[in-house]
Protein: DNA-binding transcriptional regulator, LacI/PurR family
Amino acid sequence: MWIGRLPGTRVLAGHYHVHRDTVDAAIAILEASGVVEAAEPRRARRILWGAGSGEREKKEGKKRLLLIHRGLFVADREDLLILQRMDGLWRSRYGEVVWEQVDYLAGQTPEKRLAALVKKHSVNAILLHVPPVTWSRAAAELLPTYCCGGSSPDEKSISLSAYHAHEQLKLVLRRLVGLGHRRILVPTLDIKGDFAKVAVQALKEELPGPPVQGTYEDLCPACLVMDSGSWFEYWKRELNRTQATSVVLWSTRHLLSLYSYCFQYQIAIPRQLSVVLFSYDEHMEWLRPQPVMFRYPNNKAVRHFERWIDKGLSPIGSRFFDLEMIPGQSIAKVEI
Structure:
């Protein structure tokens, strides 16, 4: 039994008399399950939970966590991995985690919806995945709350780890503008939510002037989950309407649908259309041209969540991290 940190793959392969590929596959499963943290350069992986969890539960007392997410079909792979790791940390300290999918922008007010879920599951704390401000505030008024992504109401009662979407998006837009792009399409995950507001404000601040046609809001159309046929109609309509020379996307699903559309209609990336993904999935590195992507520092966010647990679920404030750019070949200068 290994305690504290996991040895390197060479040591593990020798200890268990298996090939190193087998060790790599096993570690990948442990990472996805939140048992060990992801590898960092020249550092052994830290064991997040497992041995001794029963003793900790007895000492700290069992508590139930309500994990609220937008839907795993909406979340990208990196989102799912970080939630699984936070789930594992909680189980190692307190016990049970209940997952609930909600539509933040539909149905009852967040106060009523949260109150019903808290009563239904008899939980002691709440973990929100990318919530709007209204949900963050409402949850914090009910129970100890941690927000994984989303918008902070800038209150001391909120514990949150995220990135400054507005500032990070401005950096991307600034680079595209420097390459001559003026018609930049930024599809959003909602119509009137936080993503749309961030995108519109960033475009207003970074574009050298107002859009040639329409408004800034017209450059940020809602990009909702649809079937494959609807995706093609969506891209045909929006690209023709805006005559965009570049597109900034928030989701790998949106990226795959756009790449498929461009392949079908022989739109050359990046010569005719530059593409940036404001997310990361290692599988997207197989695409050609490889998209420019931005990776969230999951390890830092998980450590912040662990600190919240270590502090007895008391508020620890907000931490905002910079995204890491993964270079690609999907952006280029505008051809005149």
About this structure: The chain has three domains: 5-46, 55-163+298-321, 165-295. Confidence is low (pLDDT under 50) at residues 50-59. Residues 5-46 form one domain. The CA atoms of residues 102 and 238 lie 28 Å apart.
